[in-house]
């Protein structure tokens, strides 16, 4: 590996926004660890796309809510490539449920994956990143909307945003930046699932730009943060949402 080629982990990179981020970082001369939870075939397809374009990548399975799995993800990366410069924590779940006593399992799952998973990934990143590294977590612009049924998801992502700001302060002196990117509605397979054309059109019209975001646009925001021009941005939540919130 070239001395100039940096290494990035992207969690939840087998599809959607995570896939776009992995491809974008590979274009920028990063070796990319394509993390996935269950879809080995889709993760390998991302690796193949990167390698076909002349980049380097490796798929690594890990449930980010499992401490041992997160440990293995980072250990595999360091054993194979000898360094780690960037961690983009994109993996998460969105499960709907109103704030009722019989929806407690929805809250538990959201906190386990979205908040506990973020804690584990960000904490491990803080332990092993090179001087001047970058940590980026994915949040959501839906925090500003308070839609019914989103309570568990919003609570978990609000926690993630809190962790970002605290960790940035805890890493003082190491030149490591910690930020979050909070997309608005993005045209992914997951977004379209279960929605009618009318619902999609309504949501797309909520932002002043009157359209859905594209995964590549979120990837571009991440690429800015990990690049040289993003070095002075720290402890911030970038709401890449077309004015949605």
CATH class: Alpha Beta
Major β-sheet strand ordering: 3-2-1-4-5-6-7
- Total of DSSP H or I helical runs spanning 4+ residues: 8
Number of strands: 7
Indicate the percent of residues in helices. Answer: 40-55%
Q: What integer is the average pLDDT?
A: 96
The CATH homologous superfamily is termed: NAD(P)-binding Rossmann-like Domain
First-last Cα distance: 42 Å
CATH architecture: 3-Layer(aba) Sandwich
Overall domain count: 1
Q: What is the fold named in CATH at topology level?
A: Rossmann fold
Give the overall silhouette.
Answer: globular
Sheet of most strands: 7 strands, parallel
Contiguous low-pLDDT stretches (5 residues minimum) are none
List the secondary-structure elements in sequence, H or E: EHEHEHEHEHEHHHE
Radius of gyration: 17 Å
Sheet-strand content, in percent, reads: 5-15%
Descriptive report:
- By secondary structure, the protein is α/β, with parallel strands linked by helices.
- It has one domain: 3-Layer(aba) Sandwich (Rossmann fold), CATH 3.40.50.
- It is 44% helix and 14% strand.
- The chain contains eight helices and seven strands; from the N terminus they run βαβαβαβαβαβαααβ.
- The chain has helices at residues 16-27, 40-52, 67-81, 104-128, 151-170, 189-192, 197-204, 215-226; strands at 6-11, 30-36, 57-61, 86-89, 134-138, 177-181, 237-238.
- Strands 3-2-1-4-5-6-7 form a seven-stranded parallel β-sheet, with helices on both faces.
- α1 (16-27) packs parallel to α2 (40-52).
- The longest helix is centred in the middle third of the chain and has 25 residues, at 104-128.
- The protein is globular, with a radius of gyration of 17 Å.
- The model has no long low-confidence stretch (mean pLDDT 96).
